[in-house]
## 1
Amino acid sequence: MNVTKTLKRIVAAGLAVAVVAGAGVAAAQQMAFFRIGTGGTAGTYFPIGGLLANAISNPPGSRPCDQGGSCGVPGLIATAVASNGSVANINAIASGGMESGFTQSDVAYWAYTGTGVYEGKDKVEGLRSIANLYPETIHLVARKGAGIKSPADLKGKRVSLDEPGSGTLIDARIVLGAYGISEKDIKPEYLKPNAAGDRLRDGALDAFFFVGGYPAGAISELATSAGVELVPIAGPESTKILADYKFFAKDTVPAGTYKDVGTIETISVNAQWVTSTKIADDLVYGVTKALWNDNSRKLMDAGHAKGKAIRKETALDGLGVPLHPGAEKFYKEVGLLK
C-alpha cells in the first residue's frame, strides 16, 4: 500500500473520531485506542501496520459490518505508529507506551527469555503473541560497482546496519560475524533504509542491511532510480547461521522483485504481532477475530504484496513467545488450537 494513502487513512480515522465525539455520539459507545508499533515509513512494517489498523478499527458511530461499514472491533481506534522497529516496539509495549507492535521472532524470543541481546537485562515476561504474520527477508543491498558479491566483501566498506533498537541491526551483526567480520572491520553507519538509500544513491554509502518483507518500498524506489545489487547470504556461512539460530530459515528473493535484480538466495525470520498481558483478554480476542475476518482478508490481499502472505493457517507458526489468552481463545474457537 502506498504510504501516503496509509497516512491519509489514519488521519481520516482520527478526524472521524473528533467529529463523532463533537456530536456527542461517542457517549453511546465505549471508545478504545490500540497503537501498533511498526518500523520506519520506508520499510514493510509501516504499510502492513496501516492495513491491519484499518482492518480492526471500528470508530464510534461507524456503520456496522452487515450494513457495509467497518468489520473491526466496535469502538476501537487503531493506529500504525512509526518506530525504530522490533526492539523499540517491545520496549514500548513493556513500558505501556504501545498496546501492541510488530517484531522479529528472534527478538521476541530473546526479550521473553532474557537471552541474546537481552542477556543481563530484565526479561519481558509479560510479552504475548497475537499472530505470526509473514517471513522477513534479510536484504543486503549494495551500490552497483561497489564490488560486493558476498558479505565477506564488506571489509573496509561503508555499510549501514540500521538504527539502534531495530531487529535489522541485530541480524546484521549475526551475518557479519558468520563471515568473520566485526563492526571494526567496516565503516558502520546506523541509518533507516530510506536515509541509507539516499546515501547509497549519492555514492556516500556502499551497502546497507534491511530486514523486511519484499518488495520493500525504499529498495524498489532505489532499484528503479539508481540501480542496486542484492548480495546473496548463502554457502557454508549461511548454513552455520541456520544451525546456530533456529529462528532463521532459508529464503529466496525471486527474480524481478526489484528492477534488474535476479534470483537471490538469503535467509529470513518471521514477523510477528505481539502485545502484553496488561491488555484485556476481551480486547485482544476482538482484535484477533477482526484480523481474520473476510473483510480483513480482502484488505490484506489488495493492500500489499506481503499482505497475501498473512494467513490464518500460519498464524501459530514459529511464535517466539506464548499466545495472549484473548488470542488463544479465538484460535481454539476456530479449531487451530485444541
Note: The chain has a mean pLDDT of 89.
## 2
Amino acid sequence: MLVTKQAQTRSTDLVAWRRHCRGTLPLDASVEEWMTDFFSDDNLPGLIEEHGSPLNLISTAPMRSNLDQLNQVAAERNLDFKVFFARKSNKCLAFVDQANHCGAGIDTASENEIQQAIDQGVEASQIICTAAVKSDSLIQRCLKNSICIAVDNRDELHVIVDQANRLACQAIVALRLGGFRHEGQKLPTRFGFDVDRDNTLLAELSDLPLSVQGIHFHLDGYDARQRVNAIAQSLEWIQALRDLGHSPAFLDIGGGFPISYLRSAQQWEMFWQEHEKALLGQRESITYRNHHLGRQQTEGRIVGKPNSYPYYQTPVRADWLASILDAEIGGQTVATKLRNSRIQLRCEPGRSLMDGCGMTVAKVEFRKQNAEGDWLIGLAMNRTQCRTSSDDFLVDPILLPTGEGTSDPMTGFLVGAYCTESELLSLRRLKFPTGVRRGDLVVFPNTAGYLMHFLESRSHQFPLAKNMVVSDAGEPIALDLIDV
C-alpha cells in the first residue's frame, strides 16, 4: 500500500509540475521517479550555480532495467544473445561501467571510445569497433588489443590486412553488410558491403590474416520486417562463409531499437493534425514562425514526412525485439533459425538503453518580446546541447519556478545562446500559465540517449555541459569521470 501511495503522490506532484509549462498542443513526456525527486530538490539551483548551465543529470539504474528487458526476451526463447551498448549515444563513463557490470559489451565508434572502455576495465572480447571511418591509428589500436572490427568496405579491409601483416597478427573482424532486399526493393544505406554485388568478396578472404567471427549490419528506421529480411540474408552469408572454411559465430543486427518518449498516443496524433491545420492557414501557428518540421504545404495539401523521431510509437524495445524473434523465416521462427544455426544474436542499442537515464537542466537568463509580440525565454544553453538530427525535441519541458519576483502568464519560445536567428531550443509554442522568472530552471526530460552529447558544440567558446551521476545506492551526487 505504501508503494501505491508513493506512486500516487509522485503522479500528483508531476501534474503540478507540468502546469508551469505546456505546449500549445501538450506533449507530456514519460518521466522517471528519480527525475521527479529532483524537481523539488532544494540543492538543484546550487548545483547549477556550481557546475554551470546546462547541467546533465544521469542515472544508470534505468539502463540496468532496460538491459534486463532485452535479455529476458532472449532467455524466454532459449537464444544465445548479447547486447553491446552503443557508446556514441552518451559519453558518460558511468554507463560504460554499468554495461560492463551487467555483462553487456561496448560498441565503440572512435579511438577514444575504445581506449576509454579499456581503461574502465572492459575486456577486449567485450568490445566491437563499428566506426564509420577508421583511421590507421584506430585500426592499429584494435589489432594490438584483439578487438573485433566491423569491416565496412574494401579500402578498409586492405588497410586492416596490411597492418595485420605488419604487426604479424590475425585481425578479428565482422563483415558489415548492406543493400538488403525488402519487398522487392533494395534498402538504401551508406554502410557495408552490398549483400548482392559484393558476394565475390567471400572467395577472397581465405588467404588473408583474418578471423571472420561474424556478420554485422545497421539499418535506418524501426521497421521490424526489414530486420527479419536482413537477418535471413545475413544467415545466407554466414552459411557461405562456413562452406569456405570460416567459423562465424555471431550475427549483429545493430541498434535502432525504438522507444517512446511520450505518454499519450492521442497527444502525438493531435499535435500533427493541428500542425497540418497551421501549415494550411486554418489555425494559428503552433511552431516558431509556423516552422514546417519537415513537411510542406503545396497547392492546399501537406506533403513530405516530419523530420522527427517518432516520439510516440509502439511496440518498443523488448516487445519490438520479440516481434522480430517470433517472425518466421522459411517456416521457422527467427529465434529457432538462429538456434539451429548455432549463431549468437548480438545488437547495439543506444537510445533504448538510455531511456529514462538522463535529463538536462538549464537556467532562465532573460524574458523579452520580439517584434511579433512573442515572448522569448533565453536559457543558458545552446541548441546542440539537447538535439539530434530531428528538427525538434518534441516533448514538453518542465519549468521549475526557482527564480525571484513575480511574472504574468505568457506564451512564447525557448531560445539559446548562439548568435543566430535560428537558435531555438524548442520550435514549439509553449504556454507558461504561472509566468517565467529570471533564475527559474527548465528541465528537458529523458535526454540521455543522443540528445545530450551527439551534436554538442563549443562554438563561441562556451564550455561543454557538465554531467553528474545520481546514485541509486544513496551515494552523493558526483561528476561523471568523463568530466574529472
Note: Residues 224-243 form the longest helix (20 residues).
## 3
Amino acid sequence: MAYHLRSGSAPSSPRSSKPQVEQQLQSLSATISSPLATIDTTCEGLRKLADIYSCIEEMMCAPSNQVSLCRTLQRVAVEAELGRSLVVLDLCNAMQETLMELKMTVQELLLVLKRGEDTTCQVKAYIRLAKKAQKQFKKISKKTTSDKNDSRVVMLMAEAREITISLLESTSCILLKQIEMPKWSLVSKTLQKSKVLCEEEQLRALECSIEDLESGVELLYRRLIQNRVSLLNALSL
C-alpha cells in the first residue's frame, strides 16, 4: 500500500541540535543507498528530509548563528551555498514535471490495457521519461560538490543538499524499475482476463504512489524555499 504524505508535516524535533540532525541525515543516506529502497520508503524519505530542512532553518534563525553567518568569511560560503541551492530547486521542478508526465503515461497505459490493445507505445514512453530523469540527476550530482566550511549551519545545508540530490536520483531509478518492457509490451496479448485485472490493479497502485511522490517533492520544494528566504534574511541583518 502506498504511503500517503501529509502536506503539513511538522518537524519531529523542533529543537534538534547539530548531532541529531547529522544522525537523521546519515540514517536517510543509508536508506537511500539500500538495495531494498522502494517508492514507499522514498515517500517517507522525502517527508523526513523536509523535516530536516525545517530543523536547519530553526538553527539558522538562532541569533548566535545569524551573527556567525554574517561574518565576512562565512558570508562567502553562505552565498555559494545559496547558489547551489538553486540547482536543487531546479531539480525539484524537473522531478515534479517528470512525475506528472509519468502519471499521465500510467493513466494512458491503463486505458489501452482495458481496451486490450498493444501497450508498447505507452511502456516505451514511461521508460523514456524515467531514463531521462535518471540521466539528468547523475549529471547534476557531479557538479554540486561543496567546499569544507566551519559553519555548522552551512555544513548541514550542504549535506542536506547532497542527500536531496541522491534521493531524487534514487527516485528516478526506482520509478524506472516499476515497468519492464518485456512484461508490459505484450501484456494485452499474452495474459488471461484475470491476469489483466491484476496488472490494472498494480498500475492503479503505481499511479497512487506517483501522487504520493508528487506531494513529497512539493513539500520538499516549499521547505527549500523557506530555507532560502531565512538565509537571505540572515544575510541582510
Note: Residues 1-16 have pLDDT under 50 and may be disordered.
## 4
Amino acid sequence: MDWNLLASQLFGDEHGIAREGDFLHGTVVFDGEPLAVIGTTAHAPIGVQLALRQARAVLDAMTHQPGRPILLLIDTQGQQLRRRDELLGINRAMAHLGMCIDLARRRGHRVIGLVYDQALSGGFITSGLIADACHALPEAEIRVMRLPAMARVTKLPEPLLARLSESNPVFAPGVDNYIAMGGVRRLWRGDLAQALREALADASPRDRRAEDGAMRGGRRMAAAVVQRVLDAG
C-alpha cells in the first residue's frame, strides 16, 4: 500500500506526515492525542544516514514528548549493501537505532510497528521486531533471509531448506509464517484506525513473541527455553 494512502486511512487526508527521500516522519493526532510517526518508504535500503535519521527522530520524541506513542511505518529492502556504508559502520548505526527504540519502550513510550509493504533483513530486525508489537497488512512481504542465503550461512542444501520451509515457519518467508512464529502480532484488515486503536491499547513492554510463537505452533521451544533460563538465574 502507498504510504500516503495508508496515512489517510489512519489519520485523515491532512495527516501531517512528511516524506524526505525514503524517510517518513511527523506528529499526528489520533483519538484526540498526539502520536509520533517514524518510518520508511519506497523499499528503502537502510544505510547509515537513514538509520541515524530514524534514531534521531526516536530520541527527539523521548526528549520533547516524553511518553508519546510511536508508530513505526516499515517498508524496507534491508540494510544498504554499499561499501561506503560498510566502512562507516552500518552495523553500529542500525544497532543504535534498535537501542533507541528499546530505550523508548523502557521509558514508557508505546511503540507499534506496522509492515505496510516490505520488510526484509536487518532493516526489519532493528525496527518492527524491537517494537512492543509488530503488526502487518495482509499484502505485506516479510522475510529476514532468502533460502539461497540461508543455505550459504547454514551450510545446508537449499532443496533441504525448501522442504523444511513447507512445514516449519522458521525456514519460510511470508506474513503468515511470521504470525505463526510470533514475530507479527496481528494482521490489520478492514478498519485500519480501529486496528491501530486496539494495538495501542494492547501494547506492553513485556515481550510476548516467544509465548505467541508457542501458542501458534510456529516456535514450539523458545518460550520454554526462555523460562528455563529465567528459572536458572
Note: The chain has eleven helices and eight strands.
